[in-house]
Amino acid sequence: MRIPAVVDQLRKIAGRDAVLDRPEDLMMYEYDAGVRKHTPAAVVFPQTTEHVSQIMGLAGSAGFPVVARGAGTGLSGGAISPEGGVVLAFARMNRILEVDAENFRAVVQPGVVNQTLSDNVAHLGLYFAPDPSSQKACTIGGNVAENSGGPHTLMHGVTVNHVTGVTVVLPSGEVVRFGGKAAECSGYDLTGFFVGSEGTIGIVTEITVKLLRRAERVATLLGIFETIDDGARTVSAITAAGITPAALEMLDGWTLRAVEAACHAGYPLDAGAVLLIELEGLAEQVEEQAEAVREVCVQQRAREVRRAKDENERALLWKGRKNAFAALGRLAPSYYSQDGVVPRTRIPAVLQFIEGIAKKYGLRIGNIFHAGDGNLHPLILFDPRDPEQLELVQQAGRDILEYCVSVGGSITGEHGVGLEKRDLMPLLFTDEDLDVMLSLRNAFNAAGVLNPGKLFPTTRVCAETRGASRNPVLAAEGM
Amino acid sequence: MSATGISLDVTRELRAICGEEYVTEDAADIGRSQFDGEHPIVVVKPGSAEEVTAVLQVAHARRLSVKPAGGLTPKRSEKRIDVVLQTSRLTQVEHYDHADLTVGVGAGMTVAQLNGMVAADRLLFACDPPQPGRATVGGVLASASHGPLRHGYGSLRDFCIGIRFVTGDGRRAKGGGRVVKNVAGYDLMKLLIGSFGTLAVITSASFKLFPAPRKTRTFLAELGSATEALRFRDVVLRSPLAPMCLELISPGARNLMRPEMASEAWVICVRAAGSDAVLARYRKELGSAVSREVEEQDETRMWQAIENFPVPPDEFGGNGSPTDFGQRIQITVAPRDVMTVVDTLNEIGLQGKIYVAFLGRVGIGHVLAVARDDSSGAASPTGLVIDALRTKLAANAGVKVESADNPWPIAPPNLDSMRAVKQALDPNNVLRGKDIL
Asked: Would you call A176 and B416 a contact, using CB atoms and an 8 Å cutoff?
């Protein structure tokens, strides 16, 4: 079916005003927060699970690929359309369907903004724990697709630890429900398997999430260090002392100066690094831990340890952290953020390695990251108008991820593989590992209608395609 | 004539893979009675993931039926097994750095061995299944086992960070890795945890560890009815407290564990960790409902009894589960629905033919029940309990019986999707399970 005919059909399903196909509209949907771009053939805004089911049925018969999209804040290209693809945008499926405080659960549509859910249950003393830095914009559907994290996942876990059930539309159009409100279900844990599958298994249309009770006491400390090495060593010293902070974030000196200039968060301008350490729980416990953390910081040569006096000071410290990516936008036209993970004892070594990479390629690289769980976010500044620079930046990113893997780490802690890192998957996984994953994808999405070209290395999927069929949808896999 | 149901050729092939001494046709050493008496079996003990792969490739090609086995902690009555694949030689430590709070070990290591190793560094592997001296890492993963620590530390689903396995069709693969945060590739840990060995044989796994609590104390509240007990649970859940364990014990369960202290009270056990100041705060928040506090050895013994329920305390070190109770039925519902489960179980008990006892992590909606025939009449007390639950619970509740031919006695609502996954990893049904899907 040609695109104008597809658009007509989509309008019949979702409504006349629920489909975009003019180039000037489509441009808004050609990118996410990463560095790749591609314009979709059309964008449709389903309003019900039934719409999504019908659209999948149409995609199967008409042979166009489908990509689900939340707010487009992803950093790995997961929501970028392949050639001839239709984007399913969930902006109109943004209702909180149920708040079940008695069971500590909420049921939401995928387009609900992460922060909105927490705001809506705040009066009950509850909140939704996963807190990506983009939480004011990103959607819970997107969080499910990417298994998103955030600073407080150190104590509370990532998205999958907070999802107990999903309603999913499979590529066939069939609607299935995995899990529910119970913490465990009978049969395979398909909910857990689905979360983080990056839109390659099915499209989620309802999500049952856990809500947590707000802690009675929160202490937010700022450990200020003369050198980045002292700060880095403090990270594993804190966990070795038997303390699990709710969050343990690190900013290097260069980054914190850029952030301070933009956000006025109160960070010291002359420090080598700071650690933002948050403790939460029972008041007595938090006070004891705060004292213990202060001692560890001092032992590790902290120049000073400050504690936020009130909620305003705390909010200000976090504002600096959460807006850091945007603050760096003042220094360069664009940045490339990496998402590698290392065992936390390797943080000092990996930071030295990154410094070496910056020198080798003549790039500016800032470090602001989830130090407590070893999840790095080196931010490489560049000018996207210079294609040579982009290539250099991507090479630097690859070098850093190769190093992470070489010390027992991973290529992504919370951003997902998507388009961006699909060809780095062989660093972590053998052919047979990928073959098993691909056979699971094909158990649900054999024709590759859903989010083709993501997660799996191009070489692997091409081989699969040659062996499978000449389905035009699969041609998009090698996008 | 072959002494077994499988040909001598196959036995020879398996011996070529694992070595003569690790393939035996005498199943006595693993408790022959646990398997179907009619159908002879071969027991193999591979020494590496490579050997597991080769065994499963033979089984896949020849359409043999393989039963992966860890500590064989639950009694089993398996049918139609050709090969029992024991993981007892897969006990290697793959990585351990205490400062990273992560560890990776072979599937055959027992939970007690693993906890012994990390306890030396004041760390905790936060899974406390029954019979930790026999239960293996692979076994607890396959059955998604847990104990009272489930309340405060989450489940294996929350702290297993990597898994290595061989699929039913003989592909050696992995999911996750060794770091605490990782979203590269599909989350195969989730898929295999609780799949009861029907998709793949787990060969090793990596876990997050936790700092071991330095001081703990348990507060016991004895209440007059299940309703009062669950109301007290709600008080705890809505308080600022974050206990390690929050367990309900029915009068029947308590009478089994401590016959000398038989009473009709429903007990809520709140286990807390922390300094004297923290424990004092627990005392204050829990208030006058608390009738007793236990610590040190008494506390350890009490939680061991709960972990091993319904095995009597003097049998913990034994080799089997010598109890006249049938299988352990694990029920997980939304926390509010625990009352429905309790009512259902009580009703059956009141009919007087079978004795029903239960306890559970009721803060997360879990109840563990056992039933005994007290009238020599009921065909299957466990079956009666399950029938009653089937009529009362929502389709998406979690009900499992670890030791049954079919671990999911109430058919899961997503059988088609489960079948698709099974077909992708074990098309020849080497690891069984097609009949229950």
From this structure: yes
